[in-house]
């Protein structure tokens, strides 16, 4: 059995993000919205190592454009963007009926800020700096909830 077949057995048939290319599986399409190129590079590297397809944008306006396309599975959204507050952006998405899972990323780690981010429509909240494996686990957990418990990490073939 080849690697793609092994992975296909792990993921449900209806998983909307399963793309098989050259025997590699892309598990989820992730949008990273952050204006810090170093952070984006670290997150992109982490997610690609785990077979996620990553797109990144540095501001809220470009994030809106990508999210309205409807072809990403989860967004990692910085709260402090140069052109818009990330909390306002997630609230606007929810008011428009866009239910894409959003993990808020921010240097603000106070309980009040976390609670506000979740109440305004964020699905999870990760304070910077973060441990890469914890971020990855939180992404997987949010995807699992969004897919009704169907998401499982695919092993690289």
Task: Give a description of the structure.
By secondary structure, the chain is an alpha/beta fold. It has one domain: Rossmann fold, CATH 3.40.50. The protein has 6 helices and 7 strands; from the N terminus they run H-E-E-E-H-E-H-E-H-E-H-E-H. Strands 4-3-5-6-7 form a 5-stranded parallel beta sheet, sandwiched between helices. It starts with a helix and ends in an 11-residue tail after the last helix.
Kindly summarize this structure in a few lines.
This protein has helices spanning 3-10, 37-49, 60-69, 86-95, 111-119, 132-146; strands at residues 19-21, 24-26, 29-33, 53-57, 74-78, 102-106, 124-127.
The gross shape turns out to be: globular
Radius of gyration, taken over Cα atoms and rounded to an integer in Å:
15 Å
Number of strands: 7
The third-level CATH topology is Rossmann fold
Task: Please give the domain count.
Answer: 1
Secondary structure category: alpha/beta
Tell me the CATH architecture.
3-Layer(aba) Sandwich
State the distance separating the first and last CA atoms: 10 Å
The CATH class, by name, is Alpha Beta
Organism: Actinomadura montaniterrae
GO cellular component, one term: protein-DNA complex
Protein name: Response regulator
GO molecular function, one term: phosphorelay response regulator activity
């Amino acid at each position: 059995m080849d690697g793609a077949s092994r992975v296909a057995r792990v993921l449900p048939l209806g998983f909307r993000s399963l793309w098989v290319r050259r025997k590699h599986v892309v598990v989820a399409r992730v949008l990273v919205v952050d204006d810090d190129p170093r952070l984006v590079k670290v997150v992109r590297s982490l997610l690609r190592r785990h077979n996620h397809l990553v797109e990144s944008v540095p501001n809220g306006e470009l994030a809106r454009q990508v999210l309205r396309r409807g072809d990403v599975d989860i967004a990692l959204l910085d709260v402090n963007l140069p052109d818009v507050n990330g909390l306002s952006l997630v609230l606007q998405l929810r008011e428009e009926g866009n239910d894409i899972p959003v993990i808020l990323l921010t240097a603000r780690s106070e309980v009040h800020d976390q609670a506000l981010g979740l109440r305004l429509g964020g699905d999870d909240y990760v304070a910077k700096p973060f441990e890469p494996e914890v971020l990855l686990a939180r992404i997987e957990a949010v995807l699992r909830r969004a897919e009704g418990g169907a998401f499982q990490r695919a092993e690289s073939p």
